[in-house]
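FAQ: What does a ligand-bound record look like?

Like this one, built around calcium ion:
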Amino acid sequence: MKHLSLVFILLLFFHGCGNESYCPNGWELQDGYCVKSGHETDLDDQWDGLEIREVIDEDREPDHEERQMELLDIKSHDREQEDADLFEEQDGLMESRGSEGEGLERRQEFKEDGETCETYGSFCNPIVISQFPFEHSWDTSRSGLSENDIYSCAPDLDESGPEVVYMIDAGQTGVLTVRVQDSPENGVDVDIHLLSSPNPGDCITRANSEFTTWLDIGEKYFLVVDTYVKDGVPQAGPYTLTVGFVPAPQGDCTMLHGSVTLKWGTLALPATGPVVKEAHMVTTAEKFDGNGWPDNSTDGLARHIELSSNVTGFLADRTETWCPYGEGGSQWGQGSSVKPPLEYEAWYICMYWTSASKPDPGTRMIVTNPVTGRSVVAIAGYETGPGSSSAIAGVVEEVHQVLGTAHRSKLMVGFARDQDLDPGPVDCVQ
Ligand SMILES: [Ca+2]
Ligand SMILES: [Ca+2]
Ligand SMILES: [Ca+2]
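The answer part, i.e. the structure of the complex:
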């Protein structure tokens, strides 16, 4: 193990020295630094004595304009009126739990000539999701639609039972969490599939009960609740669908260039390496009796998750408990500084700072998945760790979930040049 750690530290330093293997997929070496392919570096900027590497994205602008044009098209006046009409009818549908909607002539792009779209919850007449959190209880055994049997995401699974089709219109880039609650103990197993077209070959992701994925503005997404067929028997029946969305506003993801002193050594930033999954901290919004802290690893945790979800809109299932008791004399859920506010705790990052290098609470860092290019604005200054050079940083579980990564996955981290960024998912425009 000792040898591995040493190799890792050496690798870290080689990174800054221009070892080409440092750069992840989709990034390239320029002037000794990893930048996204197709970007140019500008090393002139200075901030707080740290050298700044400005990343100029020449390709991004027209692409973004195109997306805006597409959005404007989608959001034409007629459409908005249709949306309003549909929402009234959807409300009625939800109250009556599955009665047929009337006159829902909308989103007809996929209707063939002469075909009627009477089935509410079909591809040419989908149930539109445009407000979050969205919740809908229905029953696949009451769906008149059964067109998709197999999805490219999981071609071995038999989904030939009846399905219900939703369309997602978030109107902006962000992170979607979809959950479906069914009852396998009663022979009901419906699954969730996200498609980029009505074609089941265009499956983006799927799950038995929950998935989290990014949506891009201007793209069209269908969400299909489909019935799994087990031993020839369709597991159709009632379900409750819940959809949450965390917007990813556009932001400048430029990371400052410099080095940071940690308790185990000096690290050049931005750095790419293993990032551990951290537990939860008690926030300024929470009150506890007695000594003011949780009594154990889960005391008040469900309330914490609910409060946090209400603030962020992030609905994915959480698995971590409170930060452990006893580390440096700490209480359950206590970090190394003051309590963070709710909206910061959901996105916190820590490194093994020294007392001199510890950033002020609220300091913005950028965390990027080097495989997908997706990024989160993380908040430093409330927690310190992990206490070993075998990981470069730690992030609360929400950050890993949003980036599609896990405990010790390799992530790129650095200090944000823009310290006014909103915490959470970010649509990097620089
Ligand atoms: Ca089906
Ligand atoms: Ca299921
Ligand atoms: Ca299933």
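Follow-up question: can I read anything off the structure? Yes, for example: Residues 1-24, 39-110 have pLDDT under 50 and may be disordered.
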